[in-house]
Amino acid sequence: MIHLEYVDRANSVQTAPVVCMHCDQPTCAEVCPADAIKRTADGVVQTARKPRCIACSNCVLACPFGVPEVKVELKMMMKCDMCYDRTSVGKKPMCATVCPSQALFFGTREQLEQLRPRSTPVNQFQFGAQTITTKVNMLVPKTGKAEYIYVTAALNETTIGKEITLNILQEAYD
Ligand code: SF4
Ligand code: SF4
127 and 151 in contact (C-beta within 8 Å)? Predict the structure, then answer.
């Protein structure tokens, strides 16, 4: 399950899909008191296991990417699990299958680099002094040498009207 978030609701109808980044060391799982979130051997962080989840929202608060959502009516957390029922048998996740602009792509890093020659896939994120690495990559412009995305630098960015720009790379070069 993925959900959509407004990027700047007061000024724009622009939305962005919130997919799990499948962290190498998932904070969501580390803070779960019920051990309800499992990471598979191939690095996919699963959604909450139904009998275990107590809907405490610890994972919601802890995830640095704002991914998990507690479904109050179901009394459990649900999040993107990379459509593991599909991807574990060689199919693409549903979001990447239906995305008309291929903003979401599922494949190997080599395929991605071939498809987007002007971009660099990055899977390292800096939150202040903390570094998080993920299975999922984000694409950044190939200019410069972006080894990581400095998330903290984007927090103070202001938006102007419908133009949404996040200066996440400039700080990373400093
Ligand atoms: S992005 Fe959030 S929900 Fe996904 S594995 Fe990382 S901490 Fe867990
Ligand atoms: S909401 Fe469920 S999955 Fe998330 S931390 Fe609490 S028990 Fe674990």
Answer: yes
